[in-house]
Write a structure and sequence with these properties.
With about 140 residues, this protein is an alpha/beta fold. It is built from four helices and four strands. Strand 2, helix 3 and strand 3 form a beta-alpha-beta unit. It binds nicotinamide-adenine-dinucleotide.
Amino acid sequence: MIAQEKTFRNGIGNAVEKGGGREMGKRLESKVAIVVGAGQTAGDTIGNGRAISLLFAREGAKVLLADCRLDSALQTKEMIDREGGEALAFEADITRNADCRALTERCVDKYGRIDILVNNAGIGAGAQAGVFPGAG
Ligand SMILES: NC(=O)c1ccc[n+]([C@@H]2O[C@H](COP(=O)([O-])OP(=O)(O)OC[C@H]3O[C@@H](n4cnc5c(N)ncnc54)[C@H](O)[C@@H]3O)[C@@H](O)[C@H]2O)c1
């Protein structure tokens, strides 16, 4: 099970490393994406939400990076900033209705629309029940 999970997470991570095996560029130009769980838990490989956010930004999307751990979302934003992409980090616990409303409102305020929603937040490999809000 652990080996399977590592392969899954490495799969998206490899896409980040290799540019997805194809030329990266403009497939998401003018699109606005919300990625929930855009930070990551520390580990050997890049987190899925972080990898998705980087790939979306490389394709031209503006990305709202939502995570219950703002510091981790900010790290993802720094990575996107360094590559010249556009992103905004936002602290939100997706198990709370008020936070869901706040993050969509912030996205529309900042970028005017929402085209893509990735609800990636969850308990990744190695996490334990009770570590994240709503878990356990
Ligand atoms: N890692 C794997 O191999 C694997 C395999 C299959 C499925 N998944 C699923 O993919 C998703 C991401 O996995 P990962 O290993 O990249 O995880 P990760 O732990 O590295 O990243 C998940 C992020 O979600 C955030 N998060 C957790 N609860 C949240 C909440 N309530 N509100 C907002 N943010 C929250 C965490 O702070 C973290 O930054 C999970 O749903 C996981 O179950 C992972």
